[in-house]
Amino acid sequence: MSTVSSDRTAVIATQQPADGPAPFVRIAAGLALIAFPVLFTAGIATSPPQASDAPADYVASLGADPWLTAVSAGLLHYSWVAFALGVLAVIGLVRGPRGRVVVPLAAIVTSLSAIQLSGLLLSDWFTGAAARSMPLEAATAMTEGVWNDPWVSTWTITGRFVGFVGIPLVIAALARAGVVSWWLLLASVIGFAGFFVPVSFGILVGMFVATAPMIVVGVRLLQRASARVRREELAAA
């Protein structure tokens, strides 16, 4: 008669190999979160220069250099795609009672917000094309009309939430759960202050500092993908 092991960990381990889907998901999500600040900062760095913050100058800048507009918008779009996919995996980093509610809530809300924001980048191609196809005054009026539409305005507000509130919210939730240090929240908040610092490259540096904490979160996911950590999780199950 064969002996059936009563060790639940051993049974689970035989059913779930170390190279199964769990580590793959964590590795993919970790790499996505590490790539996010790099892609986002590159997108900001390649944004077409504009004479001022006036709507007409914004429209003109997108129409002046189609190639640069496409590069910047593409980088920004895929940065938010990477964030939206990777941030959902942070739910699996929670191991204790703290953060059981706030981490999933923050991850889901910010993922949805990032999806909204990534879709908004398509407007850069249309705005640039409008600036090259019609008089600047008409292109500006058309662009403002679109952005002032209630549906688009709501889309914009929910999308921008991830930048100014969502990332600090995720970091705070993970810090509450003991996954990362509270110091990372300070970096995120200080980084967004770069929008209001009137110095050269202030926004660029600020945006990298604000999003860089997600690199640490990505590294945490990569660490959790190791065979040793998986064995510990199975033992604790």
Ordered list of secondary-structure elements with their pairings:
Layout: H1 8-15, H2 21-45, H3 55-64, H4 66-87, H5 102-120, H6 122-133, H7 136-147, H8 150-176, H9 183-192, H10 202-211, H11 213-224, H12 227-236
Helix pairs in contact: 1-12, 2-4, 2-10, 2-11, 3-6, 3-7, 4-5, 4-6, 5-8, 6-7, 8-9, 9-10
Organism: Actinomycetospora flava
Protein name: DUF4386 family protein
Keywords: Membrane, Transmembrane, Transmembrane helix
Number of helices: 12
Count of separate structural domains: 1
Characterize the largest beta sheet: strand count, sense, and whether it forms a barrel: none
Looking at the structure, what is the overall shape?
Answer: elongated
Strand residue content: under 5%
Poorly predicted regions: 1-21
SSE order, one letter for each helix or strand: HHHHHHHHHHHH
Oligomeric status:
single chain
Please characterize this protein's 3D structure.
With 237 residues, the chain is mostly helical. The protein contains 12 helices and no strands. It has helices at 8-15, 21-45, 55-64, 66-87, 102-120, 122-133, 136-147, 150-176, 183-192, 202-211, 213-224, 227-236. It is elongated and about 60 Å long. Keywords: Membrane, Transmembrane, Transmembrane helix. The chain crosses the membrane at residues 24-47, 67-94, 101-122, 152-172, 179-197, 203-222.
